[in-house]
Amino acid sequence: MDVTCFSLASRFVGVKEVAGTASNSLILAMLRLDEPWPQGDEVPWCSAFCNFICWLLRVPRSKSLAARSWLDIGTPVSVETAQIGNDIVVLSRDAGGHVGFYAGHNLHHVILLGGNQADKVGLAEFPRERVLGVRRLVS
Prior knowledge:
alpha+beta, endopeptidase fold (from Nostoc punctiforme), 3 helices, 6 strands, 19% helix, 28% strand
C-alpha cells in the first residue's frame, strides 16, 4: 500500500490549537521544523502542517512557513487535473495565503485537507477564484 501525503495528513484530522496561553506541542513541533521563532500555536501554521507531512514522507517541501512558498515546489497542474494523493493547492488570502492538500473540487469551490482551518486540521471549502496554483509533489 502506498502512503500519500493526503492519506498521512488525514491521520491528523482533529489536531487543534489550544486556547489561551498554552499551545499544542505537536503544532509547535510542526512550526519549529523550519523556523525557530514561533512561541505558540496561534500563528499561521497551514504551511507548517504541509511541510511536516512532506518531511515525514521525504517528499519535496517548501521549508517555509509562507503558504505561497509552495508555488515553487513540485510540478504545476490545473484544478481540473488535480488528484487526491500528493497534490497541494495554494490560495490567496488577505494576509499572505493558505495551503493544503487537494481533496476535491466542484464548479465553484476547491476542498482542502489542511492545518489551521478553523484552528485545526480538517477539510474546508474555498472559492475557486482564490486558487493561485496547484502543485503535484510526487509524480
